[in-house]
Amino acid sequence: MTRKRQSGLSLIGVLLVGALLGACLLVGFKMVPVVTEYFGIKRAISVVASSADPMNASVSQLRSDFSKRAIVDEITSVTASDLDITKENGRIVISVEYSRKVPLVSNVSLLVDFSVSSAGK
Question: Fewer C-beta neighbours within 10 Å, C or N terminus of the chain?
Fold first, then answer.
């Protein structure tokens, strides 16, 4: 009689694949709020920059507009004083660079650097 070769994962293989999947899910679930906040910051900056009149808008008014949007969108990583506001080619450009530290397990953390600009780079 000939033996059929078995195919599939062994118990150790299943455990390793499960641990790897669990680690990926852990990182993914922890990153969802960070990425959501990034898109909120990006949206707030672009709305504030596009709705401002380049000739009459003051820096303090732009910071105030961002602060109001930050309260609504629950943005905590960036404050209005962190914004870099410039005028380029007759357009207002608002940009900010910030970092977020995401604790994963025990003393292991993930540091993510973000750079947001209304210039559309």
Answer: N
Q: For residue 35, how many C-alpha atoms fall within 13 Å in the half-sphere facing its CB?
A: 6
> Is residue 95 within 8 Å of 87, Cβ to Cβ?
no
Strands 84-88 and 108-117 turn out to be unpaired
Average pLDDT over the chain reads 90
Q: Where are the domains of the chain?
A: 32-117
**pTM for this structure?**
0.81
Identify which of 46, 44, 57 has the alpha carbon closest to the alpha carbon of residue 120: 46
Q: What is the DSSP letter of 79?
A: -
Place of tokens 């596009």: 50
